[in-house]
Amino acid sequence: MDIRYDGTRGIFHLSFPGMSYAFGVAADGRIRHLYWGPALTRDDSLYPLAEKELLPAAPLKGVDDPGVGLAEVPCREPGDFSDPVIWIRRADGIAGPRPEYVSHTVSPDHLTVTAKDPACRVTLEMHYRAWGDLPLLSRWLVIKNDGDSPVLLERMKSAAWHLPGGRAWRLTHFAGRWGCEYQKNRAFLT
């Protein structure tokens, strides 16, 4: 995996054989998903998309405002009715988080992006790792409580996958019970 960061535009581009994954830091510090699909050979092909998707969210419209890109880690904000990846509640009633970009570290096959929410007093580490030359991306989150009091972690998922548009996606999974294991189930995603 080749990990590139354009600091002037705030774009992260993870490039694999046959696949690219990109996200960026918006003007308000929020981290937004940009692209997942066939490999992009040049970073500048992301620039027009970044100009549109990395705008700051308008007050009370949240990240689901049609003029603002999708959150890399949806967290249930005002006007955001998507399923949140993380939902935290502090003992004092503050809920969230609303993470903003702080820093990142890069190794040959691993990217860690750090974001903080000072009101909720939590730090999120978003990890991205490649698996050799495979077009396979592994993502996970680490949540750290920066405050003195405990937090209630009401919901935590590893990630929200934003599937590339323009095609029909099908989910295939196997389920069953004793004697009927491995029954193939298929459903088209909408």
Walk me through what this model shows.
Helices cover 4% and strands 45% of the residues. With 190 residues, the protein is mainly β. The strands form four sheets. Strands 1-2-3-4 form a four-stranded antiparallel β-sheet, covered by helices on one side.
Short structural summary:
The chain has 190 residues and is mainly beta. Helices cover 4% and strands 45% of the residues.
Q: What is the percentage of strand-forming residues? A: over 45%
Could you state the oligomeric state of the chains shown? single chain
> Could you give the distance between the termini?
30 Å
> In order across it, which strands form the biggest sheet?
1-2-3-4
C-alpha geometry:
globular
Number of strands: 13
Main pleated sheet: 4 strands, antiparallel
- Poorly predicted regions are none
Helical residue percent band: under 10%
Order of helices and strands: EEEEHEEEEEEEEE
Mean of residue pLDDT?
83
What is the gyration radius calculated from CA atoms? Answer: 18 Å
Total helical segments: 1
Class by alpha and beta content: mainly beta
Features of the shown structure:
single chain; 190 residues; mainly beta; four-stranded antiparallel beta sheet; 1 helix; 4% helix
Topology:
Blueprint: E1 2-6, E2 11-16, E3 19-25, E4 31-37, H1 47-53, E5 86-90, E6 95-96, E7 100-107, E8 110-117, E9 122-130, E10 137-145, E11 151-156, E12 169-175, E13 183-189
Antiparallel strand pairs: 1-2, 2-3, 3-4, 5-6, 5-11, 7-8, 8-9, 9-10, 12-13
